[in-house]
Design a protein that fits this description.
Largest sheet: 7 strands, parallel
Strand order of the largest sheet: 3-2-1-4-5-6-7
Strand content: 15-25%
Shape: globular
Structural class: alpha/beta
Distance between the termini: 36 Å
């Protein structure tokens, strides 16, 4: 018996990276997983079953497309028998590297549409089927939701806004015994971080090694492992954090301490 045995968990952006890790870590605790992503998360589903979790199904969805999100909500309701215990809003987009003076409006809108509006729409469609006795939403924000970073204004603004969405939902849903929290990771080890470092190196006229050295220069002198993100998310969706709602926990190796 695991901590989340019998709990139905929906994870968006679950095909790879930290989304896959989140889903698998819940599965290790006996959860029943519904995976939402643009393309089929076959490897994630296989890992869920391998570690003893239950794979309830995959729902294809681009969360920036309202019609797809509405359809996703109906399919999740069907797969979950109208009862979801935990929603993890992990799906997101890194944006491109632009100084604001060079910002392409289309790029700005896409990042905001996916990261902010997409997360809002997923919440909107799934709140009606969250467990009426007790449920949790955990939103994926970022360390840049609490600071600026050059070249990434669209991404920063979308992640700052996720904190506003989190706090607002926490107040709107508190009387329904639904807690809403967020996590704010620093750079997470893996392919995505490597892609971001290369993007910044090109935009800033630096080498990969220079950017890496800047990013890893936090008190703990390392990037964050995906499992460490998943562990904090599990904590926020468990009874161990039962008095917490509207919070945004830093997972940054000491880079942020506020």
């Amino acid at each position: 018996m695991g901590y989340f045995t019998g709990k139905t968990v929906v994870v968006t952006g679950a095909r790879e990276g930290v989304g896959r890790t989140i889903a698998v870590e819940y599965a290790k605790e006996g959860a029943r997983l519904i995976l939402v992503s643009r393309s089929e998360p076959k490897e994630t589903a296989e890992e869920i079953q391998k570690v003893g979790g239950t794979f309830l199904g995959f729902v294809p969805c681009d969360i920036s497309d309202e019609a797809q999100v509405i359809a996703m909500g109906k399919k999740v309701a069907e797969l979950s028998d109208n009862c979801v215990d935990i929603l993890v809003n992990n799906a997101g987009y890194n944006g491109k590297a632009h100084l604001i003076e060079n910002m392409v409006t289309e790029d700005w809108r896409y990042t905001i549409d996916l990261n902010l509006t997409g997360t809002m729409m997923v919440c909107r469609e799934l709140i009606p089927i969250l467990n009426k006795e007790k449920a949790n939403i955990v939103n994926m924000s970022s360390n840049v939701s609490k600071r600026g970073i050059p070249e990434r204004s669209d991404y920063c603004c979308s992640k700052w806004a996720i904190l506003g969405l989190t706090e607002t939902l926490a107040l709107e849903l508190v009387d329904r015994n639904i807690r809403v929290n967020a996590v704010c990771p620093g750079p997470i080890s893996g392919e995505r971080a490597e892609q971001l470092i290369r993007m910044h190196a090109e935009a800033e006229g630096k080498t990969y090694e220079q950017v890496y050295a800047e990013w890893v220069n936090v008190p703990m002198k390392r990037f964050i492992d995906p499992e460490e993100i998943a562990n904090v998310i599990k904590f926020l969706s468990s009874d161990m954090s039962s008095a917490m709602t509207g919070q945004a926990l830093n997972i940054t190796g000491g880079m942020l301490m506020n």
